[in-house]
Amino acid sequence: MYEFLDRRYAFALYKACSEVGNTDLVLEELGEIVDEMEANEGLRKIIKNPQINRYNKKRIFIEMFDGDIEDELLNFLLLLIDKGRILYLKEKYIQFKQIYLKRHNTVLAKVKSVIPLDENQKEDLKSKLEKEYKKKIIMEEEIDKALIGGVLVTVGNEVIDGTIRARLEALEEVAEGNVVNRYNYGEFDKVLEAVVSTSKHLAEEDIMKLRKWLKTFYKRNINIIIDEDKDKYRNKELVVTIGSDVLTKSYMENLSSSEGEVKELKNPDDYLA
After folding, report:
1. What's the pLDDT tens digit per position in 51-73?
2. Which SS3 state, helix, strand or coil, does residue 135 take?
3. Among residues 37, 39, 26, which one has the least CA distance to residue 75?
4. Domain 2-103 belongs to what topology?
């Protein structure tokens, strides 16, 4: 119920901002005000104090923000005070951001690093993400001292782990025989080369289906090369080698049943004649 109400408020603000063309600026300003309200205990006490009437609360907000934020946003804040909903500004901000992202073909990338990225690093990462997702990218940065180095990027439900810790863990997995290193292949637009060794003939249709499975798993374009050495893995019905990764048929079967992104592709058997 309240989420629906929050979205109605947010949509009304978005519509008003769209008419004057300042949705980008209002999104930024609204986020800053939400952060200020969470950090400023004195302001929260004023908002919550029942002995301060709505007129005086509005006067305080006008003194704080008039001339520093867009008129549409200030009017929105005063409306929320009138309606007794100003304490739930963050929920409106979340809904406003979702509306903005959808209307602007934009996705949010949450970037964690042990130290702040410099401007060149930010632009480079943003450019790569926009190439990968074919959308505009808004980056939210967070410092995480638990990371050794590198960056951890979350886009929607997808995590791209480029941290040093992840690389060290990947090396441990290699030592233990689990050598799949899914996300550590450099540039997002890089085409990966998959060498396929199999004891049976693969028709072109089979290769296309296998390429689709691998492309979904790695989230990269895949170039498949058929290994002509039939004796190399004669005890294995199918082996795919990509960089340091060695994927057997049974390994992919397990991934198909446990990895959400490839689950819809079903069993790799479906891709073999």
Report:
1. 999 999 999 999 999 999 999 99
2. coil
3. 26
4. Peroxidase; domain 1 (1.10.520)
- The 3-state DSSP class for residue 190 equals coil
Q: Tokens 């004057």 — which residue? A: 20
Contact 38, 90 (CB under 8 A): yes
pTM of the model: 0.55
DSSP reduced 3-state for 256: helix
Residue 113: in which H helix or E strand, if any?
A: strand 106-113
CB neighbour list of residue 141: distance below 8 Å, 6 or more residues apart = 111, 112, 113, 116, 117, 122
| Residue of 102, 96, 107 lying closest to 15 (CA atoms) | 96
Q: Where are the beta strands (DSSP E) in 144-263?
A: 150-155, 158-163, 192-198, 222-226, 238-242, 245-248
Buried b (16+ CB within 10 A) or exposed e, 55-87: eebbeebeeebeeebbebbbebbbebbeeebbe
Q: Where are the domains of the chain?
A: 2-103, 106-166, 192-271
Tens digits of residue pLDDT in 186-196: 555 567 788 88
* Segment 157-169 mean pLDDT: 65
